[in-house]
Amino acid sequence: MEEIEESSPWRVWDETEELITDTNGNVIVYKAKEEEEWFRCFIDGTYRIARTATYNGVPIYIASITAVMTERTKEKVLREVGLNKHLTVILFPFDAFSERFKNTWGDKIQEFKQYLKSEYNAISDCRLRSDSLDVLQKSGKNIWIYSDITYLGLRYEEVPRKRYDITEQNLFDEGKIYSRVRARVRVLMSVLEAANLKYYRENIERKKYKNHSESWVLVDGTVNNYWKFFCRKTNQSESYPLFNKVVGFIKTIRRTPAWMDIAQIHKLKEREFIVTIGTKNDEDPVVKHEMDEDKLEGENQWGFIYLRFRTPIYFPHGILSSRGIVKLQFRITEEYSEINVRDRILKIQNKAHKVASLAIKERFPLPTDKSRIWKEAVAIEETEKIAKSRLLSEEWLKNKGWTL
Questions:
Q1: What is the DSSP letter of 294?
Q2: In this predicted structure, what is the pLDDT of residue 160?
Q3: What does pLDDT average to in each consecutive run of 10 residues of the chain (404 residues)?
Q4: For a tag on the chain, would you pick the N or C end, based on fewer CB atoms within 10 A?
């Protein structure tokens, strides 16, 4: 699930994002042409967060999280594949609270954590950091998790006290608490998305389609470097090939090249696109901070495509607008490693043409939600519907509650 802001402004001028230009330094505008190949699979995650209780002035949040992967059959029908997992997550600054109230209520909140373990077989979210697929497969369909937002990321069992992000000074800052809750939930949604991808690659694709190359997969939103942690194997570098044919479908664009007039993007006609190269993606900065994504930037080179995905027939001719512009993200680490600059650019251009040709085939049919008519791919919309159907209701989440 990507939070759509149809009229959102361009937020960051990225000085590290390079434009692919001609020999005179002019931006090259390409036009996508449809090919026979289609995206075979689609991944989308979603979540719902509710405040379920307050303990001594500090809110306890609960979240329902799920992610779905669908596969397009030869008959052009979507069917669900991959994992069928749902996470119910309790989020609270357990250690920060215990430290602040160590002589009074601190023990009670730790007892609550033990209660979650014994009553719901709840596990710590940090167990999902290394090989999330293995942990998820050993659990049932509905998995309870407790999440300590005292710390950043999913490594808090290794983190010393000095790296607390929630401290005595901001323990009662509800804005800070909710920001951390939302970021952690987004990361856990990414865990499910990455696990679905790995499951499909290893347990369906390589067994069922032995004589076929890897399928192209479209993911709603960004593809992040930290996904490698959730797909970890003996050698972390073995995780990266899982993403070679994965494309991020970004509808809320947060970064654009600093050295380009934004009007050049707004002037694009349907199926026209511009290609750039960078190391930073369009993930929400709060989520990046949660998983130290900034420290991982540079490990992968990403290709980006600014594409006029769809232009309704009533769109005024000559009007410059960001409506209908999507950003596609794809991995180009191998292509970028080409020593000869000319060959490097040619390989990146070829892959960009391939990605754009796949994307424009998703323009039709139109989505049923007309508020998304400019940018939504119907296959992503249908995948999201399946995911949303599995979320717990807001009423159930709000009224779950516990007596401490």
A1: H
A2: 61
A3: 45 84 91 93 98 91 97 94 94 90 82 93 90 90 95 72 80 94 95 93 78 86 83 57 91 89 91 94 87 70 95 72 93 85 92 97 93 94 97 94 65
A4: C
Nearest 5°: CA angle at 139, between 404 and 96?
35
- Rounded to whole angstroms, the Cα distance separating 240 from 246 reads 10
- Residue 197 Cα distances to 6, 81, 137, 218, 244, angstroms: 28, 10, 14, 10, 12
pLDDT of amino acid 297: 63
Query: Residue with structure tokens 């159907």?
Result: 389
How far is 368 from 382, CA to CA, in rounded Å?
A: 9
- Structure tokens belonging to residue 392: 């717990």
Residue type, 335: E
148-164 b/e (C-beta count within 10 Å ≥ 16 → b): bbbbbbbebeebeeeeb
CB 267 within 8 A of CB 323: no
Contacts of residue 137, Cβ cutoff 8 Å, sequence gap at least 6: 83, 199
Q: Return the domain boundaries, the chain.
A: 1-39+216-391, 47-212
Distance CA 264, CA 301 (A): 23
Residue 27 DSSP code: B
How far apart, in Å, are the Cα atoms of 161 and each of 94, 104, 157, 280?
Answer: 13, 20, 10, 30
Asked whether 20 and 26 are in contact (CB, 8 A), the reply is: no
